[in-house]
Amino acid sequence: MRNIVFHDIDVNKTYDPVISLNQAWDNIRVPIIAPILRIAIYICIGMSIMLFIERVYMAIVIACVKCLGKKRYTKYQLDAIKEDLEKNKNYPKVLVQIPMFNEKEVYKLSIGAVSGLSWPSDRLVVQVLDDSTNEVLRAMVELECQKWIEKGVNVEYETRNNRNGYKAGALREGLKKQYAKDCEFVIIFDADFQPEEDFLWRTIPYLLENPELGLVQARWKFVNADECLMTRLQEMSLDYHFSVEQEVGSSTCSFFGFNGTAGVWRMSALNDAGGWKDRTTVEDMDLAVRASLKGWKFLFVGDLAVRNELPSTFKAYRYQQHRWSCGPANLFRKMLKEIILSERVSIWKKWQLIYAFFFVRKIIAHWVTFFLYCIVIPATIMVPEVHLPKPLAIYLPAGITILNAASTLRHDLPD
């Protein structure tokens, strides 16, 4: 009994939640978190390599196009077609659609620019599709249309009692009009787009010379690119889309998407593809994919630019990016089976459409950017047991950035 020692209980010892959390983190970090993070790194390496190879391929094509000094649209004899049109007076009838929704700031500019297009007035129909919910604004748009009607321009002002299908629904309803059915070509300009006077003369002849062409797409020129840092970054991103992605697609006669505006459709191609559908938020891409699966070819005219404005507020930019990011993935899910079973396009074009256009450019490009930089790299800092390879962290991203910059050296487009 004498050897028994009684220890005093430390009544001042308290529970420390920080120590408990550290102990819990140590218990799950090595056996659970580290293996998952290693798998995520391998996935990011694979996606980065796929994206890098795609960028290298497009850079090689662009380099060849620039070195040879020839683009696909330069092989057409536009002057001969123009002379034939002026001599025989056999101008095709053209419909120009301007969908708009509460466009208070730009409606005058767009209607005025389209109404000033150089084309015989009896062969041109300007269709203003106004889904505005503001009755005062509707009256102002209708008054602007009436002003151009009095000047001899064939302007049709159309409204709807609902907004079913949004832009796709408005365009679809516009094509159901009797005067629209008589047109051979249809052009879409969003409300903030202002085409030059000779736009039709620089696009329609391509479609007249090649009956296999279903779409002629022009590029965009941003009038407010230098307004702020956000618009400058948008210009850099979209310049890559036009100067590289669409130029490569056109030059290699492979698929590239319709941008939803500043493009000329052959009416028979649009109808053959099934017309406008509102099943996704990227109705323009949906139409282009369906037309491509029907065997129609597309042409991108890189030296023809149409002026427009970039979103200058974060809210508008966020809405635009959400649509462009989520819409293609949803469309890919809905059309994968249709693409695989299509009998009118080659195996190579199916592969290019599925792998390059949808999987790499529309899915992998977004996923690797978010997953790697926002999740994997920060997580490796918290899990020192996992090593982040330098090629993934430095070399591949730097290589992709350099290829993007080298392919889109800034230059002034012709006015």
From TrEMBL:
Main location group: Golgi
Molecular function terms from GO: glucomannan 4-beta-mannosyltransferase activity; mannan synthase activity
InterPro entries (alphabetical): Glyco_trans_2-like, Nucleotide-diphossugar_trans
Alphabetical list of CDD domains matching this protein: CESA_CaSu_A2 (cd06437)
EC number: 2.4.1.32
Membrane topology: Multi-pass membrane protein
Domain Glycosyltransferase 2-like: residue ranges: 186-377
One Gene Ontology cellular component annotation held by this UniProt entry: Golgi membrane
Subcellular location, record wording: Golgi apparatus membrane
Top-level lineage group: Eukaryota
Keywords noted in UniProt: Cell wall biogenesis/degradation, Glycosyltransferase, Golgi apparatus, Membrane, Transferase, Transmembrane, Transmembrane helix
Protein family: Belongs to the glycosyltransferase 2 family. Plant cellulose synthase-like A subfamily.
Protein name: glucomannan 4-beta-mannosyltransferase
Organism the protein comes from: Perilla frutescens var. hirtella (Perilla citriodora)
